[in-house]
């Protein structure tokens, strides 16, 4: 029985296009502006609330402590969008044009603050509610 050697050809790579090339310019500008305004507003409000909850006179109740702890992950997420997502998108950079390590670090930090640390802080807070 003859043996056949088949060569598998790599699939043709598609050209990587930035978001600005895939959607209308008006929607692209609206999306950038929306992310920018939301991230500035979110960063500012969460920083202000963190400061106010931290500097509040008298003994804080449990709700105030939970709010204080929740401002940290919210601030970090908004901050990551403000200084990474908005500039990368506005400059129309593609994934291959970004520094891999930096992109991984920023993405991991923003994601971990959003999903892991927020829940972790809530769990710690509920376990140590009487200690504070």
UniProtKB/TrEMBL annotation:
Residues 36-123 form the 7TM GPCR serpentine receptor class x (Srx) domain. InterPro entries: 7TM_GPCR_serpentine_rcpt_Srx. Keywords: Membrane, Transmembrane, Transmembrane helix. The keyword Membrane applies. The chain crosses the membrane at residues 26-51, 72-93, 105-124. It comes from the Eukaryota. This is 7TM_GPCR_Srx domain-containing protein. It comes from Caenorhabditis japonica.
